[in-house]
Write a structure and sequence with these properties.
6-stranded antiparallel β-barrel, 26 strands, about 45% helix, transmembrane, about 675 residues
């Protein structure tokens, strides 16, 4: 019904637009009543639509709690300031719950329990479910509307009729919500039955706890559900939803165990809800509130419930497990305490049974035997035994080549390295890589400035001594012709002999130095090919070299080639105990892994060398030489001479069972450990 107006100043204009607005509001409320909105959301939108339509000063909605008290769930701005006497106003609202229809109270109008103390005309519309239920407490809410005083009676009468329609839509909302709750409870019972079936049937305590945590979190619609085992003194975390493994040393796990221990000792649930500011335990102990407060502050839980699980229905005081449910998101709301209680009771038998199996003496053996008794398990075990027997038989009966894997190089048998005869400086390089040279051909010239200076010094000394010798001879000849003093002649003869000796020594020293100077011209020791790479860079002009440093390598690449293999010292016994004297070698070049070549071992060295590994460690190796069975191609020879042209080889020392071949390194380690 459209509200009537006596004049345009105190009521909304009665034109077609008002009817259109009224129709839109009623249609919107009808859609809202069919939605899944919470009571707070429903009533906020209701008064937000109705109050402007009726030009109300204030509006509010009171919701009846299960304990009979009234709680304000929605109101317009300024409503609290308009209430002068809150107690009188709440008594008036409570009285309106039992009213058969909408109460219309003028300013100052009194009822039996209270009066309208405000300056507005109050409309109190009780929302009752009496048309759908026979319960005594059918009234669930009161819609309060404060209209300006002084309007025409017909205006208030129209507003009352509108409020009748609105309270009917609100009642329909509550009926639909109650039906949805009943349906949810029914589906919740079915879910609990399915939950009890899923978590049972296994004596494994860890698996049972994991099933309770994962399935329970889904049914309770909580962000995290943890399962803890209760002992005499403390609780131990077993499983947490969302993870397959719990880390008990973490801060969160230790805090959960502290909370569960408190609830276990109190034998009462602990509940906290941030949305209502409620934090309570049965005894309301300050110590408990302090622990819960620290936990939610540290881990940001908006809702928390710690619920002991009784061992059985007869002995409710015996706690065997503890559930800890947490809600971190504000969208899901608070935890459902009733549902969690049912969940704990449904999980208690499975938890008790798993704990009883776990605490039995030799419980692990009994659980294994129980698992083996299952027909499917017996079949799988028999199949696994057959497979293992077949594998063991194959490992013991099938022969396989016993080999030693080594590394080495493929090199010409006639080769020689050219060393620096002394410390010097490179003066000239006359060859390059792959150049053919004859025996005695000059490869490079070295220069030693100090040696040149020394030769010049000796030559200068020779000239000086020669002149002194000639002077002494001339003096002695003159003395013989004039004085003929025997003493003077004897002295001159002695001096002459001394100078001759000094001259001869200088000549011998000069010959040695010239020989060393001639050795600075480095020649090839044999006819062949220069195999050294990047000769110009290694022996750049002016680069110093040290005595004994390798300058170049010359080899007869067209002749015979051999394999030089580095065998670890601990593998040498396998070669010496081989069944055949002619050990075969299978090898491939590192740069050409597609082609396998063969060779025959010709010599095993009698000494052990220390070889530097790329890691910087030293390894004891024995040099083994082998001759290729077939002539080498030019491409293979060229590849072997390139830098990094190493060889991967396998020396076949005989045959052994496949199992020993695969585990030879392990058996060798065990033998060495046993012997030493």
């Amino acid at each position: 019904m459209r509200p009537a107006a006596s004049n345009p100043t105190d009521t909304p204009p009665a034109d077609q637009s008002v009817w259109d607005d009224l129709s839109l509001v009623l249609d919107g409320l009808d859609d809202l009543a069919r939605s899944q909105a919470s009571p707070d959301q429903f009533y906020r939108q209701l008064i937000g639509s109705v109050a402007p339509l009726l030009a109300a000063n204030h509006a509010a909605v009171w919701l009846r709690e299960p304990d009979g008290t009234m709680r304000i769930v929605a109101h317009t701005s300024g409503w609290a300031e308009s209430i002068a006497d809150r107690q009188n106003h709440e008594a008036l609202v409570t009285h309106a719950l039992d009213a058969p229809g909408v109460l219309s109270l003028a300013p100052g109008q009194s009822l039996d329990v209270a009066s309208n103390a405000s300056s507005d005309h109050l409309l109190l519309a009780p929302v009752t479910l009496s048309d759908w239920t026979a319960q005594a407490d059918a009234a669930v809410a009161v819609i309060e509307l404060a209209l300006p005083a002084g309007r025409a009676p017909s205006s208030y009468a129209g507003a009352v009729e509108l409020m009748q329609a609105i309270r009917a839509q609100a009642a329909e909302y509550h009926v639909r919500r109650r039906l949805a709750q009943l349906s949810s409870e029914s589906s919740g019972r079915d879910a609990l039955l399915s939950f009890a079936e899923q978590i049972g049937g296994t004596p494994d305590l860890g698996l049972t706890a994991q099933r309770i945590a994962s399935e329970g979190a889904r049914i309770a619609r909580c962000d995290r559900l943890s399962v803890l085992r209760a002992s005499r003194r403390s609780a131990r975390l077993l499983a947490t939803s969302g993870t397959d493994r719990v880390e008990r040393r973490g801060r969160a796990a230790r805090a959960l165990e502290r909370l569960a221990t408190i609830a276990m000792k109190l034998d009462e649930p602990i509940y906290y809800a941030d949305s209502t500011g409620e934090q309570s335990t049965t005894d309301s102990l300050p110590q408990v509130d302090d622990v819960v407060g620290r936990y939610v502050d540290e881990f940001h839980a908006r809702s928390l419930m710690v619920l002991p699980m009784p061992a059985d229905a007869e002995n409710q005081s015996a706690t065997r497990g503890v559930l800890v449910a947490e809600q971190f998101s504000a969208e899901r709301g608070s935890l459902d305490q009733l549902l969690l209680g049912e969940l704990a009771r449904a999980a208690a038998p499975a938890m008790t049974s798993a704990l009883a199996w776990h605490d039995l003496p030799l419980g692990g053996v009994l659980r294994t035997l129980g698992w083996l008794r299952m027909p499917r398990t017996l079949f799988r075990l028999a199949a696994a035994c057959l497979v293992m027997a077949a594998v063991v038989t194959a490992l013991l009966a099938i022969p396989a080549p016993l080999t030693v894997d080594v590394r080495g190089h493929l090199v010409p048998s006639a080769r020689q390295e050219v060393f620096a005869p002394r410390s010097a400086i490179v003066d000239e390089v006359l060859v390059a890589h792959s150049d053919s040279v004859d025996a005695g051909a000059t490869l490079t010239r070295l220069r030693d400035p100090e040696l040149g200076v020394e030769i010049e010094r000796i030559r200068g000394e020779q000239i000086k001594v020669q002149r002194q010798l000639e002077s002494v001879r001339a003096t002695r000849t003159t003395a013989d012709a004039t004085t003929r003093d025997p003493l003077e002649i004897y002295k001159l003869s002695a001096e002459e002999e001394e100078l001759k000796t000094q001259r001869d020594n200088l000549q011998a020293e000069l010959a040695l130095l010239e020989t060393e100077a001639e050795s600075l011209v480095v020649t090839s020791p044999l006819a062949g090919t220069v195999t050294t790479w990047q000769v110009d860079e290694r022996l750049a002009e002016g680069r110093p070299v040290e005595r004994g440093q390798v300058l170049l390598s010359v080899a007869q690449t067209d002749g015979d080639w051999i394999l030089e293999l580095e065998v670890p010292d601990e593998r040498l016994d396998m070669l010496r105990s081989a069944e055949s004297d002619q050990l075969q070698v299978e090898y491939r070049l590192g740069s050409d892994s597609s082609t396998m070549h063969t060779a025959t071992v010709t010599r095993i060295a009698d000494r052990v060398d220390l070889v530097n590994k790329p890691t910087g460690e030293q390894e004891r190796t024995v040099l083994v030489e082998a001759t290729p069975d077939a002539p080498l191609s030019a491409e293979l020879r060229a590849a072997a001479l390139r830098p990094g042209g190493s060889v991967r080889a396998r020396i076949v020392v005989g045959e052994a069972p496949l199992g020993y071949v695969l585990t030879s390194d392990l058996w060798r380690s065990i033998r060495n450990w046993w012997e030493f």
